[in-house]
Amino acid sequence: MFSVLRRLRTLFYVVITTRMDTSFSRTFSAADYAVFAVMLFLSTVIGFYYAFKDRKRQNTEDYLLAGRSMSPYPVALSLCVSFLSAVTVLGTPAEVYAYGTMYTWSFVGYFTAAVITAEIYIPVFYSAKLSSVYQYLEYRFHRGIRILVTLIYMVQTVLYAGIVIYAPALALNAVTGLNLWAAAVSTGAICIIYSTLGGLKAVIWTDVLQAVVIVVGLVAVIIKSSVNAGGIENLWRNAEEGGRIDFLKFDTDPRIRHSVWTVGVGSIFLNMALYATNQAQVQRYLSCRSLKDAKKSVMFNFLGIFVINSLALLAGVALYGYYHNCDPITLGHVKRGDQLMPYFVLDLFRHNPGMPGLFVASVYSGSLSTVSTAITAMASVTLQDFLKPILSWKGLTFKEMTYTWISKGLVVFYGLICILFAYLTSQLGGILQASISVLGLAGAPLLTVFTLGVLFPCCNTWGALAGIISASTATVWVFVGRIIYPPEAEFNNRLSLSDSACLVSENTTLELMQNSTQVMENVTTAPRPPIADFYSMSYFYLTAFGFLVGITVALIVSFMTCGHRNRKNVSAKLIHPIFDHALFSCLPDRFRKLMWCGVAHDEKKKQNNNNNQRRDEEIVLNMRDTSLQ
């Protein structure tokens, strides 16, 4: 333990002493480093605490699923910061600064996806007592489908973890002077330490701490900028005059980057792919004490998402309102939009030591929560989907403690892999769009195959395989086409920036004019075939497009391979009778039974009733015995 602490101290010393030159003179003070260090220290302490507390009774279920004993409230907070934390803190304000507030419509997607997940997917997964969500695919289709989907998930997770390690480190390096790779490595190292020691329980409770830090950091930025500007209304007015306050873009053109339809509808499919099919999320549902608590965790998660994203959007309004006539990018103080918030915070709190450190702590809290979630989830699927079946096939079995140590070794391994893959994200552009694109690429086949399994008993293994391949092909095709033929400027909705109140040097002005001219030449001279308009669809539609293609192809292939003939043999536990939901209670019983498609849901109901009756009888007998005593 002491050797680990010494290494941690040495690593942190490297982070705070290795600096790089930047064009912005304000950097961290001693107080900032102290605040930042306290947050990292507390995250590590939580890992040590749960490692010590559960040292005598920890098995793989305790380590990877927190013993299925978690309350819905910490699980909900953990869900909030698992995916959109660092991306939200840096990317969302930059989005508002450059494109306005249309991203607010993503709340529609969050809420709709949360409700659908809670009512359709979670009941099926929870009743199956899964350790890995991909076990469901083996029960429903075939082991080959399970392995293929697990591999897709792991590639997605490694790439996404790379984004949330590298991009915040790059932004903070350019503005605060924190060494780029020391910052990136420290993020991975801290995650490895507390995730390895305390397992999922430590990850969840550390996420709770990090959610609080994120909220405090964003609130501090909003309050301070409002005070400096003479009130939040002044910042809002500046943003409104600059065209940033816009919630009513109802243009139905799918090429529009952000509109009510692209963001509101597209984000439903994107978030369903996250909440309903992603091991990192489902692993948290399965850690709850009951199905009711699992559903609660999803809905309370939406409240947390609403609060954190609302604060990030308001911080973006404050960011533009503060620099509405003096753009830091034009001045050359920052080079990327993702660097705006760190620059803003250092400028805003230049006379308040410790506050920039609090904001940086909130950014790193986001990175820590995401990476710890990723590596524990990948350790779980590797153990459950690969190692245990292989060992069982060879006739090998180990004690539970051995599997627990294997899980810890996998957490360390995947933590190192995520650090190594971090450098790839430098080519993906802004972190908000990059993260949504990466999640969309893998989200489409994942959402396709799980939806086929849960809602379509006529779909067979061949149909599921065709759905995965077609959904993956469709999303990759559009993604690559979008890179080769970027959308035209009229669809990007990028708003103008002003430097009217800044003193820009003559050389800087000339350089900006030359760059602008070169960009225009590239746009006007590059040939654009007709298919380029199709590639220009909003990146929010990527998951939805792949999902629709995958579902259509899968059902056609299932019908051609006679999958409908075997629908009656599908276990009722693996299918959700959607028309039995209270929402459709007005429909005739005959019609609802017809929608079972031959699946024996009535037998499942009888079995559940018998189990409930047996449980009630046992409770009565226990009460009678207690009264007699």
Automatic annotation (TrEMBL):
Pfam families: SSF
Catalytic activity: iodide(out) + 2 Na(+)(out) = iodide(in) + 2 Na(+)(in)
Compartment(s): Cell membrane
Transmembrane regions: 33-52, 73-91, 103-126, 147-172, 178-197, 204-223, 258-277, 298-323, 358-383, 403-424, 430-455, 462-485, 539-559
Protein name per the record: Uncharacterized protein
Similarity-based family: Belongs to the sodium:solute symporter (SSF) (TC 2.A.21) family.
NCBIfam families in the record: sss
Organism of this sequence: Clavelina lepadiformis (Light-bulb sea squirt)
Topology of this chain in the membrane: Multi-pass membrane protein
Domain of life: Eukaryota
This protein's record includes keyword Glycoprotein: yes
Keyword Cell membrane: yes
